[in-house]
Amino acid sequence: MKSATRRGLRVRVGGAVASGLIAVGVSFAPGATAADVQSEQWYLGPMQAEEMWKASKGESIKVAVIDTGVNPNTPSLQGQVLADEVPAQVAYGATEDYDGHGTTMAELIAGTGAGGGIRGLAPDAKIVPYRIALGSSLTAKEEKRAPTAMEAIKAAADSDAHIISMSFTSPAYDSDFENAVEYAASKGKLLVSGVGNEGRDSGYIGYPAAYPYVIGVSSIDEKSNISDFAQSGNYVDLVAPGENIPGYCKPNFDQYCPDVPGTSSSTAITSAAAALIWSAHPDWTANQVTRALIDTAGRKWPKDKPTATAGYGTIRPRSVLADPDYDAGEPYSDPLRKENTQEGEKLVTEIPPASASSKPSAGATAPSQGAAGSSEDKPAAGSDDAKAVAADASGDGSSTLWIALGAAAAVLVVGGGVFAVLRARRAN
User: Fold this and answer.
1) Is residue 355 part of a domain?
2) How many CB atoms lie within 10 A of CB 164?
3) Which of 147, 183, 303, 370 could join 90 in a cystine, given CB atoms 3.0 to 4.6 angstroms apart?
C-alpha cells in the first residue's frame, strides 16, 4: 500500500450491505497550486492526453455518475454538471456530495482543470449526477430519501446519458440489481464499474462489475503493475490507472489528497476513455465503443484469452483516436457475446436504432461488458512475468501489461444467509 489508507463506503443493495470504492490519504497543504494537483495525474503523460485532445475531448457525451453526489461548484466542474437532466424521482441531493468521492470521480472524467483542479481525461464531456446512499455519512432520513442504486441506473437508462459510471461495489448478488443493469444495457448504455478493493486473493469480483453487460475495471500503478488491492477473477475486463491519484478526501472541497488508491479512479478514467472514443465516432453504438477499448488494449497475451487480473489489458483510447482506418465492427454484434450469454442465448435483445443520427447516440443495442473464458498461457503468480511492463508512451503500439492469475467467486444473499456461488474460473 501507498501512504493513503482505504476506507469502505457502504451501499445498501436489496437486503445486502455493500462496501464502496473510496480511499483517503494525507491532504495537500492548503493553497496547493495547479501544478501540485495536476502533476499527481501521472497517467496523462503516458496516455498522451494532449495528443488525444487534438482529436477528441469528449464533446457531446454525457456520463451518468452514480455515487455520493457531485458538487457542481468546484472550479474544475463549473459548467460541467447537468443537474437539470437528473429525473425528478431520483434527483434528491444529486448536487450535494456528502463525502467528496462522487465529485472526485466527476473531475477525473470531465474536470476542466480550472482553478488548479483535476484535469479530466474527457474535459468536454458532461456529468449527470446521481446520489445514492454510500457509507454511513447520511442520516437515516437522508438515506431513506436517497434513490437506490437500481433506481438510479434505471433512471439513467431512460435518460440521454451515454455512459453509466459506477465507482462502488457490493459482495452480494441481487436479482433486482441485475435486472436494472440489463435494462440499461437494452437501452444501449455503456456501463462501467470497478472490480473492488479487497485484494487479489479475496476470491470474488464485486458487483455490479460481476454482472453481465458491465465493464469490470481493475487498477494499475505508475509502473503498470496490477494493484495489490484490486480484486481478480472472472469479469475483470480492462485495467486503468488507480494508484497515486489525487482526489477529495473531505466534502469541504478546499483541498485534495495526493493519493486516493482504488478501482474507483480506474472506473472513472475508463468511463472518460469511452467518452473520448464515442465523441470522435458519434454514430457508433456501445458495442463498437466497447470493442474499440478491447481491441486496442495493451496486453501480451491472446485477445481471446482474457486474464484474471487484467482481462483484455490496459486501456489505450489513443490507439483508436489515432487510427482513421480502425474498424469497430458490427454495431449490433456484441463483442463479448460469449461472456454475456447463457448457453449461447442472448441475455439482452439487440435493437437497431430507428435512424442514424449525426449527433452522439447512446446506441440502441446492448453494450458489451463482462468477461469470462480461460487463459492457459498466463504466467504463474509470483513469477517475474506476472508483473506489468512499463506503460506504452511511445505510440508504437507495443503492449503495456503482463499479469498474474486469479479466480473469482460471487456472494449470494438468500433469506439473510450468505452463500458463496463460484463463478467460472479463468485457468491458471
Assistant:
1) yes
2) 30
3) 147
DSSP string, 133-174: -BTT-S-HHHHHHSPPHHHHHHHHHTSS-SEEEE-B-BSEE-
Q: What is the pLDDT of residues 317-362, one digit of tens each?
A: 999 999 999 999 999 888 877 776 643 333 333 333 333 333 333 3
- pTM listed for this prediction: 0.79
- Provide the residue range defining the domain that includes 327: 5-422
- Rounded to whole angstroms, the Cα distance separating 401 from 306 reads 12
Using CA atoms, how far apart are residues 400 and 396, in angstroms rounded to an integer? 11
The domain total for the chain is: 1
Peptide bond into 353 cis (omega under 30): no
Maximal CA-CA distance, the chain:
57
d(CA 332, CA 329): 9
Residue 305 CA to residue 377 CA, distance in Å, equals: 8
Question: Which residues lie closer than 8 Å to 164 by C-beta, 6 or more apart?
Answer: 63, 64, 66, 153, 156, 157, 184, 189, 190, 191, 192
| Of 375, 358, 276, 368, residue with least CA distance to 331 | 368
Query: Strand locations in 48-201, DSSP E?
Result: 62-67, 126-131, 163-166, 172-173, 190-194
As given in the structure block, the three cell numbers for residue 364 are 440502441
428 domain residue, yes or no: no
Per residue in 67-93, pLDDT tens? 999 999 999 999 999 999 999 999 999
Is the pLDDT confidence value at 300 over 60? yes
